[in-house]
Amino acid sequence: MRQPLIIDRSHDLHFMREALILAAEGAVLGEVPVGAVVVYQGEVIGRGYNCPIIRHDPSAHAEMVAIRAASVALGNYRLPGSTLYVTLEPCSMCAGLIVHSRVARVVYGAVESKAGVVQSQGQFFEQAFLNHRVLFEGGVLAEECGAILSDFFRDRRAKAKH
Predict the structure, then answer these.
(1) Band of the pLDDT at 8, cuts 50, 70, 90?
(2) Between the CA of residue 39 and those of 32, 84, 114, what are the distances in Å?
(3) Active-site annotation holder among 31, 63, 89, 112
(4) Which of 43, 115, 132, 141 has the greatest number of CB atoms lying within 10 Å of its CB?
């Protein structure tokens, strides 16, 4: 029997801060600083940060890495009742994975106006053809999530000038 999803907004800030820590870890390695955690029954079961450069894997987005780890932790390719916290609005690849893995809820920080598909471009989770509905909420710690990205790209541009 499926457990109902209990949304405790007091935890959203805590878990988004964990995702921000992961984003910072990726930035240290030269990766675009996006972090993600998957939470199930109040516990983090999957963590990830962007790492396509160091893994030589274009699919190694933070969400993908965290969902893969969560699936291993639960021993299931589906994650019903889970929440994904990610510092940046998901792209189309990650949104598809979120649906296929049956993540119940996505909480993201900064808007990705060019390629984000949760609300910015296309509203993917609201498409009639999908066989799974994902709850979503954006803007959690948006300023902090946006700042880590802005700082990263500002520093990268400054280094390129020298």
Answers:
(1) low
(2) 23, 6, 27
(3) 63
(4) 141
HSE-CB of 60 using CA atoms within 13 angstroms: 14
- pLDDT tens-place string over residues 111-127: 999 999 999 998 999 99
C-alpha span between 27 and 151 (Å, rounded): 10
Whether the Cβ atoms of residue 61 and residue 91 lie closer than 8 Å to each other: yes
Strand, helix or coil at 42? coil
Q: Which pTM value belongs to this model?
A: 0.93
Check if 143 is active-site.
Answer: no
Range list of β-strands (E), 2-146:
35-40, 43-49, 82-88, 105-110, 135-137
Q: Is 82 helix (H, G, I), strand (E, B) or coil?
A: strand
**What is the rounded distance in angstroms from the CA atom of residue 147 to the CA atom of residue 87?**
11
- Report the SS3 class of residue 141: coil
- Long-range contacts of range 68-72, CB-CB < 8 Å, 24 or more positions apart? 69/38, 69/45, 70/38, 70/40, 70/45, 70/46, 71/46, 71/101, 72/46
The pLDDT tens digits for 97-155 are: 999 999 999 999 999 999 999 999 989 999 999 999 999 999 999 999 999 999 999 99
